[in-house]
Amino acid sequence: MRIARFSTAGDVGFGLVDGLDEAGRPGPDTVIAAIAGHPFAPPEPTGVVHRLADVRLLAPVLPSKIVAVGRNYAEHAAELGNAQPAEPMLFLKPNTSVIGPADVIRLPWQSAQVDHEAELAVVIGRLCRDVPVERVDQVVLGYTAANDVTARDLQQRDGQWGRAKGFDTFCPLGPWVSTDADPADLAVSCTVNGEVRQLGRTSQLSYGVAELVAYISAVMTLLPGDVILTGTPAGVAALSPGDEVSVAIEDVGVLTNLVGDRD
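Above: the chain's sequence. Below: its structure in C-alpha cell form.
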C-alpha cells in the first residue's frame, strides 16, 4: 500500500495510490483514492478518486521532528575522512526544512557547497518510546524517500550540524509512504540531471532500521508522522541552480526536486 498526501482545488488530504507499473512508477492511469482523516489508522476510502495528473503531491507527512543518522554507511564516512561512530550518531532537522515532490531546493547565500544525500526515510505510525528491536515493525507506518540536503562547508566550519542541515527546503520527502517495503535490502540511488551520483543498498547500513528505531526511541518519544533518516551512501556532491535531483528507493518510489537560488 502506498499512501500519498496531496492537494486539489485548495483542499489537502491523504489517499491510496493505485495504477503504478511493476517498477512502482506512475503512469497515465495512476490514481489516488482519497481516504478519510489521517493515515495512522486503518484507511477508510471516501469514494472520491483523483487522477494523479490532476493533483499536487505534497510531502507525505508533516513530522513533529526529523531524527537523522550520520555516517551510517562506511563508504560515505570514509569519503569525508571520518571514522564510523561506535553508536548511531543522531542529529535533528527542523520540520520547517520539509518540502515535497517537485518543490524547489533553495540554495542559501551563506553556503558555497550544498550537497545532496539520498536516504531511506522511516515514517513512524504511532506514539512510542523504548521500543524493543523485535517490536519495531509495530510502530512503523512505512517508508519514503528523503534528501538530507547539507551545506557541507558550513557543516565543516561550525563543528555542529544544526545550521548546515536545517535551512528551509533542506529535507525533501516523498513521493508517498510505502507500507509494504522491506527495509533490509533496498537499492538507494541519487541522480542529478540524469547522471548517477549515489548508488547503495540498505543492507550496507551500519545500523539497520530496527536498531535505529529502538535506539532513538530510548532517547526520545516518537510521534505519529515523525521521520527517521537512516543515512546516505557514498557519492555525495554539490548541487547547482537549475539542477534536477532525484532520489530513488526500491519498492518505494522516486522523489524529484529542482534546485534554485534562495529568493
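The two ends are 37 Å apart (CA to CA).
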